């Protein structure tokens, strides 16, 4: 039966010929689905703020009414015609509770009775429409909220059991240029919601009206009241009953109210807040298995190496082992075995693993010269699951690895472009203005995300903060609903984000910060203990604290461990700082970020390709799922056939079309004007006799070794000796310095820095040498304390305090840093010298190190020093020279096209040939 026939049959409307006359009171009582079917305006997501003027015994007693949006903003200008509310160009329909209250109050105010008895009778009629307790003491001020719908907030209670609280809400309609979306808005502020949940839990019956403190009152329509009675019985039930209800609450409500409401009305009654559309289930997380192989220098030759990436572990395979592994996996899957062990690595016995291995078989089959075992007998596979490791119940996402399972909907937003947010305290440079406008274009076009891949030091943080401030202004104007903003960053950059926010935005900035990391988690937990969400597959943090926050700051690891809590929140924007943290498409942290429910995502990284082109795919598929196709197709098109033409084609697709381009990448030398000169100094220092002797011994051993893995072992030995022939400091400072060409050259550079009263950064990855050098430099330059060190063992807050101290102190200073730990996110512009005492295999990492000092804020000429240890016999075939040449070639190529800068197996082979095999 249609809504009009229902109203007529229930005598809520009158049929006159072909016309149905429907009173406004009946319109207000229609369900949301019935409003849509009749083409009437959607429901207004509003509440009433009511204040009394005068006393009831006075003839001038009046009730003043303010309509407010759910976020508290008053409706400035509106016109009400019965149940229809016009707010400028927006038209909405009032629900029954708000309509009845407004009708009664407007009627009372329009014709107030002159005698006290009449006023009392009129007031008694109004009281029937208002919550119990709202009229105490002649009613001073209160707010009435109506809840035409509700959702659930699941959590794990103090006993560690699945539990939930209901959350009354209204469904807000958001109209874009070519789309309409519906979002749930909580009708009560956090404190009142907490009181409602407690009152709801205390009572065995569900009343129609609740007084929830602070002058707030909640009114429940009849159908919502009945549905909440169903939820209350489940809440008071056993663990099994609560668990069953949480799995499918709509089924319970349907069973109780199915005779009274149709399916569409039931859908509107209970709002499933749920997770992102990209989340397909909550289930046991298995490490993902992704195939990889390194292409030979000749396209006619088979791959030099193949393997599997299993989560964060990389398993290398011999080509002859691949087909045997496929057979083993087929047998294990048939037997129901969970995993099989290969080279001390557990390979999940899943269809995904088998598909990955079969991809490698297909690749190898293209080259008949490869000897593969075609008839390997499957071995009996034994379970290898570690019983001590607890199962992880994670958000399982549509990962787009094998095929494109998920593409987000593009919804254009009806929003004017504002070039600069009003509370920006810092003037943007031209390239930052362009970056802000580019992000605005993406957001207005309704795109799901974008990749800001500017070079290090171009001020990506300020660009992102400017966009977030602009978006918050749009939220405050009501262009879109107000939602919290989420920033995800490495631990070492959290304090930097707080400082940058306070420096660049006028108060209140983005609003009050909720720290979702470290010590801040203790105040967010709903249960005792320190475990995350993955053990029970339910939120263990107070999700309402996130939902009602202005902005939230967290780490990638925290988001992964508490993904059920973060994933329940509808974010206005998510910013990923140093997005290379999600470069591995098989990692759990990548899946967790992909599971977030957000209107827009900004991925920021200065190194979009750090090791492989798959890094770029993983980041882009998080920002804009499906944009680069499936990983399987992407690897086949670009990585496995990585010609320069293909890479240029990819770069054009990312940076030039369609407008706006998906990725924006600018280099400092092209866009950052006003920086001082930067000079590169390469010093060739002859090895002293003791170092040359040890180097020659290692070289001869490498030439004679035939064991597996001998090439990498030899390169590592030559690399270590080229730094210093001894790992201890049993000799004097002078003897230890003179035993190494590199250390000798480094100290010579530092002597000059000391004489000029400047500062230097020394990048050195080996921890033993860091300790030795720190003590040596303290003695040599008579420092009051050893030079500060930043490596992987230094916590994020300590890193920031050491950076601040280094920036603040005057005069000569030196800091020792590991390339990976100190090369990301730190601003150390007090120094103007960088010395690479040991070289990283990846030029992108080395460039990150240089950019700690060559960035916005640097006022002095910058000097980058490379010290090369030269063997007196082998000269240009010395390890340092061949590595330097390799890094320079890869650096040049990576800047011209999206070529992976990290060292490959082919690079290692070339380096071995140039260093070990040459010059015999």
From TrEMBL:
<dbReference type="InterPro" id="IPR027417">
    <property type="entry name" value="P-loop_NTPase"/>
</dbReference>
<dbReference type="Pfam" id="PF00176">
    <property type="entry name" value="SNF2-rel_dom"/>
</dbReference>
<keyword id="KW-0067">ATP-binding</keyword>
<keyword id="KW-0378">Hydrolase</keyword>
<dbReference type="GO" id="GO:0016787">
    <property type="term" value="F:hydrolase activity"/>
</dbReference>
<protein>
    <submittedName>
        <fullName>Helicase, SNF2/RAD54 family</fullName>
    </submittedName>
</protein>
<dbReference type="InterPro" id="IPR001650">
    <property type="entry name" value="Helicase_C-like"/>
</dbReference>
<dbReference type="InterPro" id="IPR038718">
    <property type="entry name" value="SNF2-like_sf"/>
</dbReference>
<feature type="domain" description="Helicase C-terminal">
    <location>
        <begin position="745"/>
        <end position="912"/>
    </location>
</feature>
<dbReference type="InterPro" id="IPR000330">
    <property type="entry name" value="SNF2_N"/>
</dbReference>
<dbReference type="InterPro" id="IPR014001">
    <property type="entry name" value="Helicase_ATP-bd"/>
</dbReference>
<dbReference type="InterPro" id="IPR049730">
    <property type="entry name" value="SNF2/RAD54-like_C"/>
</dbReference>
<dbReference type="Pfam" id="PF00271">
    <property type="entry name" value="Helicase_C"/>
</dbReference>
<dbReference type="GO" id="GO:0004386">
    <property type="term" value="F:helicase activity"/>
</dbReference>
<keyword id="KW-0547">Nucleotide-binding</keyword>
<keyword id="KW-0347">Helicase</keyword>
<feature type="domain" description="Helicase ATP-binding">
    <location>
        <begin position="441"/>
        <end position="626"/>
    </location>
</feature>
<dbReference type="GO" id="GO:0005524">
    <property type="term" value="F:ATP binding"/>
</dbReference>
<dbReference type="InterPro" id="IPR050496">
    <property type="entry name" value="SNF2_RAD54_helicase_repair"/>
</dbReference>
């Amino acid at each position: 039966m249609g809504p009009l026939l229902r109203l007529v049959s229930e005598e809520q409307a009158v049929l006159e010929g072909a016309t149905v006359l429907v009173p406004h009171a009946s319109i207000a009582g229609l369900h949301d689905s019935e409003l849509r079917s009749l083409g009437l305006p959607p429901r207004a997501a509003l509440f009433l703020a009511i204040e009394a003027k005068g006393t009831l015994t006075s003839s001038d007693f009046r009730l003043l009414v303010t309509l407010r949006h759910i976020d508290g903003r008053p409706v400035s200008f509106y016109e009400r015609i019965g149940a229809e509310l016009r707010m400028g160009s927006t038209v909405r329909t009032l629900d029954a509770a708000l309509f009845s209250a407004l009708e009664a109050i407007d009627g009372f105010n329009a014709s107030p009775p002159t005698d006290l008895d009449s006023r009392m009778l009129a007031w008694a009629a109004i009281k029937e429409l208002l919550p119990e307790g709202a009229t105490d003491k002649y009613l001073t001020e209160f707010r009435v909220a109506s809840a035409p719908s509700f959702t659930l907030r699941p959590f794990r209670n103090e006993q560690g059991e699945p539990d939930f609280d209901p959350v009354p809400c209204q469904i807000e309609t958001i109209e874009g240029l070519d789309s309409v979306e519906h979002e749930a808005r909580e009708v009560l502020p956090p404190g009142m919601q907490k009181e409602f949940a407690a009152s709801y839990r205390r009572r065995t019956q569900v009343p129609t009206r609740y007084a929830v403190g602070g002058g707030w009152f909640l009114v429940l329509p009849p159908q919502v009241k009945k549905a909440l009675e169903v939820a209350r019985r489940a809440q008071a039930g056993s663990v099994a009953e609560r668990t069953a209800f949480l799995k499918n609450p709509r089924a319970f409500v349907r069973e109780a109210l199915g005779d009274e409401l149709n399916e569409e009305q039931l859908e509107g009654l209970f709002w499933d807040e749920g997770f992102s559309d990209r989340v397909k289930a909550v289930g046991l997380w298995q490490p993902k298995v992704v195939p990889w192989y390194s292409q030979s220098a000749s396209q006619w030759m088979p791959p030099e190496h193949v393997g599997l990436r299993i989560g964060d572990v990389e398993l290398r395979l011999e080509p002859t082992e691949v087909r045997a592994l496929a057979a083993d996996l087929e047998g294990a899957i048939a037997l129901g075995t969970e995993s099989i062990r290969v080279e001390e690595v557990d390979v999940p016995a899943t269809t995904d693993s088998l598909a990955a291995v079969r991809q490698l078989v297909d690749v190898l089959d293209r080259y008949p010269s490869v000897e593969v075992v075609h008839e390997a007998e499957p071995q009996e596979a034994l379970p290898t699951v570690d019983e001590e490791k607890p199962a992880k119940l994670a958000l399982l996402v549509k990962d787009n690895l094998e095929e494109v399972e998920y593409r987000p909907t593009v919804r254009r937003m009806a929003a004017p472009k504002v070039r600069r947010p009003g509370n920006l305290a810092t003037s943007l440079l031209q390239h930052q203005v362009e970056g802000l406008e580019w992000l605005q274009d993406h957001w207005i076009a309704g795109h799901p995300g974008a990749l800001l891949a500017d070079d290090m030091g171009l001020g990506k943080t300020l660009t992102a903060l400017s966009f977030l401030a602009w978006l918050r202004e749009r939220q405050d104007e009501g262009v879109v609903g107000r939602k919290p903003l989420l920033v995800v960053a490495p631990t070492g950059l959290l304090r930097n984000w707080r400082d940058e926010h306070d420096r660049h935005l006028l108060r209140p900035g983005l609003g009050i910060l909720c720290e979702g990391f470290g010590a801040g988690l203790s105040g967010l937990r709903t249960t005792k203990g320190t475990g995350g969400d993955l053990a029970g597959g339910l939120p263990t943090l107070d999700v309402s604290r996130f939902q009602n926050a202005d902005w939230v700051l967290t780490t990638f690891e925290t988001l992964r461990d508490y993904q059920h809590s973060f994933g329940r929140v509808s974010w206005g924007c998510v910013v990923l700082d140093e997005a290379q943290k999600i470069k591995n498409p098989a990692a759990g942290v990548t899946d967790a970020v992909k599971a977030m429910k957000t209107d827009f995502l900004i991925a920021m990284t200065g190194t979009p390709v750090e090791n492989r082109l798959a890094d770029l795919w993983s980041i882009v598929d998080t920002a804009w799922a499906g944009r680069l196709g499936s990983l399987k197709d992407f690897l086949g098109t670009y990585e496995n056939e990585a010609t320069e033409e293909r890479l240029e084609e990819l770069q054009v697709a990312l940076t030039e079309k369609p407008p706006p381009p998906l990725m924006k990448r600018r280099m400092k030398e092209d866009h950052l004007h006003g920086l001082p000169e930067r000079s590169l100094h390469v010093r060739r220092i002859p090895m002293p006799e003791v170092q040359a002797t040890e180097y020659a011994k290692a070289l001869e051993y490498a030439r004679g070794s035939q064991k597996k893995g001998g090439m990498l072992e030899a390169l590592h030995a030559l690399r270590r000796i080229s730094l210093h022939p001894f790992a201890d400091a049993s000799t004097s400072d002078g003897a230890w310095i003179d035993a190494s060409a590199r250390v000798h050259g480094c100290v010579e550079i530092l002597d000059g820095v000391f004489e000029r009263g400047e500062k230097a950064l020394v990048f050195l990855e080996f921890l033993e040498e860091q300790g030795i050098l720190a003590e040596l430099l303290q003695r040599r330059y008579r420092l009051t304390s050893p030079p500060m060190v930043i490596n992987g063992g230094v916590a994020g807050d300590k890193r920031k305090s050491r950076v601040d101290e280094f920036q603040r102190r005057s005069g000569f200073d030196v800091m020792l840093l590991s390339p990976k730990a100190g090369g990301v996110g730190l601003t150390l512009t007090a120094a103007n010298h960088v010395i690479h005492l040991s070289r990283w295999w990846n030029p992108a990492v080395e460039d990150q190190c240089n950019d700690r000092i060559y960035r916005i804020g640097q006022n002095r000429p910058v000097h980058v020093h490379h010290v090369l240890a030269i063997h007196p016999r082998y000269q240009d075939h010395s390890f340092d020279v061949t590595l330097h040449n390799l890094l320079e070639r890869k650096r040049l190529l990576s800047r011209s096209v999206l070529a992976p800068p990290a060292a490959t197996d082919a690079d290692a082979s070339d380096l071995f040939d140039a260093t070990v095999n040459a010059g015999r």
